[in-house]
From TrEMBL, chain A:
Keywords: Repeat, WD repeat
Family: Belongs to the phosphatase 2A regulatory subunit B family.
Protein name: Serine/threonine-protein phosphatase 2A 55 kDa regulatory subunit B
UniProt keyword Nucleotide-binding, yes or no: no
GO cellular component, as recorded: protein phosphatase type 2A complex
Source superkingdom: Eukaryota
One Gene Ontology MF term: protein phosphatase regulator activity
Taxonomic lineage: Eukaryota, Metazoa, Chordata, Craniata, Vertebrata
InterPro entries the record matches: PP2A_PR55, PP2A_PR55_CS, WD40/YVTN_repeat-like_dom_sf, WD40_repeat_dom_sf, WD40_rpt
PROSITE patterns the record matches: PR55_1 (PS01024)
TrEMBL record, chain B:
GO cellular component: nucleus
Species of the source: Junco hyemalis (Dark-eyed junco)
Signal peptide (from-to): none
Protein name: SERTA domain-containing protein
Database matches in InterPro entries: E2F-SERTA_domain_protein (IPR052262), SERTA_dom (IPR009263)
Highest taxon of the lineage: Eukaryota
Length: 440, 283
């Protein structure tokens, strides 16, 4: 991914000061949705490429902004329910309107986004301002015609799926059947029908009879992209469970368990904590799964349960700093991961506003930085390096000067092109690889 | 009285911990048991902090609880294999200071260790500021800490059982038979929680206090020594094993009293000594 030409959309101002909490492209890549800590959703639309302005082609501009969730107070438990948007998932487009699901800790909402660019003119009884006409002036009948108007984007909440979860929702995933979706919290996974809000089916429940026996929680889950009966969920112990909904109504028993035995040479007090999977994503082909734990990303073959087929070190230099990272809670940071459209490159975020990309074919990897200083519009991103002592080149960053408050947790990759969206705290960066636009 | 100085103590503790965790990471002169103790203390402090939150993070609590259990298991195995080896910072009961408990006398020694007190003192000859600021917590304390946190999480979170969502159809074989039970469980949880919070006037960790009379708490213990918790059962009293399940997590600096005249006073100890003096003097 060298020689990238950058088209940066720095939306720090547009989003206010709120921290971005999720980023998601829709199925065509035309739209990009971001959710933030304040419960707002901002949708960006890609400008169609035009010959007149070749340099503006493919830029993303704000399309719509709306307040998805508000802070709530649960009076029964005296708890505040945060309005932070945990996840957004687009529904496949079935008509002119776009739909997406957005969720906070407790409630999932289905939003419909429609455009209005025409309005009817020429009513018989009303004039242009809407006032009733004096009937004596009406001498003939006319048929109202649709005339173009300025584009108006309307967003309406179509469904609210509430009261499904006792614990905090960490994932939602739309099924390939386009009729159902699932939502997962720490201990349970529910299956919903997109049209039915007053009930859901519980398909996974790992809550023990005695909470004192609790040793594992669900951290992420996703439906298989092609098989509507299969889904995977990851746990805090580093394992993946593939479940088949045809097997039984309650999928407590997994069909396949993916677990890598611990490497005894790397064992530490924090081994279990760093093995907790923070994100799981099926490849576009459906053949592989990508997981992210604290220090690595791993590619798993669905057919092999004993170990991942590929493991990439994201920031292994942190292995000797685990105690400090545990102390300041950074060890609990949940990084996401992403596939590119052809499943040949994987991407994930790190600290100091760095993000990493691994090419599965060439086995090359690169570290890039998302920051205002290094990314003027159409500037080329320079690869960065973290040095761990020893020879230090110019522009290298030493491990000790990494800024752990600047973390890139949320990243997304365009479904077909080499365009990536990176959320760095409250800034959104969109990078394009103009040189190599085709997937390889 | 109980709440006085809590914040100050905790921040002092945190500062010393920050220094310790860098020492851990650079592996400078910290032996394995010391490292383990440090991690354990950090875990317990975090769990304690989470307990004070209205809604602790379940994921983190479980990860930390598992780490504590893992360390606990290791220590148990060690103590069953080599009773003599668990000594760092443990002050045997026989050497208590007259009139007051010196800072850091450990509460409940694992049974095997208690019998080896005299051996322990002889093994420990080197004073180490790092060691003296580490905290010793007993096995039972850890278990009860984990149990209570997870139990509280259950109460906090799961009042509304999921059964109310299940359709009345036959698609959910699991639920129809468990519906009644689940609601009962939750009601019992609620009742249990009500008892827990019944005697709330003393502190927010009342689950530990419900069976203790106030006199017992202050009998012969200098409570100011305990960094993070309010309630402190007696250190040496023979009753302590029976209170194991009720007792809170106690963390306090340890000190080797076999060389009382060379106690190296580190930062945390200084503030604690001040406290002790204040109490002794009766201010």
């Amino acid at each position: 991914m060298e020689g990238e030409r950058i088209c940066e959309v720095d939306s720090g101002d547009g989003l206010g000061a709120d921290i971005i909490s999720t980023v998601e492209f829709n199925h065509t890549g035309e739209l990009l949705a971001t959710g933030d800590k304040g419960g707002r959703v901002v949708i960006f639309q890609r400008e169609p490429e035009s010959k007149n302005e070749p340099y503006n082609q493919g830029e993303y501009n704000v399309y719509s902004t709306f307040q998805s969730h508000e802070p709530e107070f649960d009076y029964l438990k005296s708890l505040e329910i945060e309005e932070k948007i945990n996840k957004i998932k687009w529904l496949p487009q079935q008509n002119a309107a776009h739909s997406l699901l957005s969720t906070n800790d407790k409630t999932i909402k289905l939003w419909k986004i429609t455009e209005r660019d025409k309005r009817p003119e020429g009513y018989n009884l009303k004039d242009e301002e809407g006032k009733l006409k004096d009937l004596s002036t009406v001498t003939s009948l006319q048929v109202p015609v649709l005339k173009p108007m300025d584009l108006m984007v309307e967003v309406t909440p179509r469904r609210i799926f509430a009261n499904g979860h006792t614990y905090h929702v960490n994932s939602i995933s739309v099924n390939s059947d386009c009729e159902t979706y699932m939502s997962a919290d720490d201990l349970r996974i529910n299956l919903w029908h997109l049209a039915i809000t007053d009930r859901s089916f519980n398909i996974v429940d790992i809550k023990p009879a005695n909470m004192e026996d609790l040793t594992e929680v669900i951290t992420a889950s996703e439906f298989h992209p092609h098989h509507c009966n299969l889904f995977v969920y990851s746990s805090s112990k580093g394992s993946l469970r593939l479940c088949d909904m045809r097997a039984s109504a309650l999928c407590d028993k997994h069909s396949k368990l993916y677990e890598e035995p611990e490497d005894p040479s790397n064992r530490s007090f924090f081994s279990e904590i760093i093995s907790s999977v923070s994100d799981v994503k099926f490849s576009h082909s459906g053949r592989y799964m990508l997981t992210r734990d604290y220090l690595t990303v791993k590619v798993w073959d669905l057919n092999m349960e004993t170990k991942p087929v590929e493991t990439y070190q994201v920031h292994d230099y942190l292995r000797s700093k685990l105690c400090s990272l545990y102390e300041n809670d950074c060890i609990f940071d949940k990084f996401e991961c992403a596939w590119n459209g052809s499943d040949s490159v994987i991407m994930t975020g790190a600290y100091n506003n760095f993000f990493r990309m691994f090419d599965r074919n060439t086995k090359r990897d690169v570290t890039l930085e998302a920051s205002r200083e290094s990314s003027k519009p159409r500037a080329i991103l320079k690869p960065r390096r973290v040095c761990v002592g020893g020879k230090r080149r110019k522009d290298d960053i030493s491990v000790d000067s990494l800024d752990f408050t600047k973390k890139i947790l949320h990243t997304a990759w365009h479904p077909t092109e080499n365009i990536i969206a990176i959320a760095a705290t409250n800034n959104l960066y969109i990078f394009q690889d103009k040189v190599n636009s085709e997937m390889h | 009285m109980l709440g006085r100085g809590l914040k100050r103590k905790l921040s002092d503790y945190e500062e010393s911990m920050a220094g310790l965790s860098s020492a851990f990471d650079s592996s400078r002169g910290l032996s394995y048991p010391l490292k383990r103790q440090l991690v354990l203390n950090m875990c317990l402090t975090k769990l304690q902090t989470y307990k004070m939150l209205v809604e602790p993070n379940l994921h983190r609590s479980v990860l930390i609880a598992n780490t504590v259990r893992q360390i606990q298991e290791e220590m148990r195995q060690e103590s069953s294999q080599q009773p003599v080896s668990i000594c760092p910072g443990i002050a045997p009961a026989a050497h208590s200071y007259p009139g007051m408990e010196a800072p850091g006398i450990s509460l409940q020694l694992p049974a095997a260790v208690g019998q080896q007190e005299s051996h322990c003192c002889e093994l420990r000859s080197v004073e180490d500021p790092i060691e003296s600021s580490l905290l010793i917590v007993s096995d039972d304390d850890m278990s009860s800490a984990i149990s209570s946190i997870l139990k509280d999480l259950d109460f906090v979170e799961d009042i509304s059982p999921p059964t109310c969502l299940v359709p009345t159809g036959d698609d959910q074989p699991k639920f129809p038979e468990n519906t009644g039970l689940k609601l009962e469980d939750d009601r019992q949880d609620l009742k249990g929680a009500e008892c827990v919070f019944g005697s709330f006037e003393i502190s927010n960790s009342t689950s530990y206090l419900k069976d203790l009379a106030i006199d017992d708490i202050f009998e012969d213990i200098d409570t100011s020594m305990y960094d993070s918790d309010f309630c402190c059962p007696p250190l040496m009293s023979p009753r302590s094993p029976s209170l194991a399940t009720e007792e809170p997590l106690k963390t306090f600096p340890s000190c080797n009293s076999s060389s009382a005249n060379n106690i190296q006073i580190c930062r945390t100890d200084l503030s604690e000594l001040d406290h002790i003096m204040e109490i002794l003097v009766g201010s």
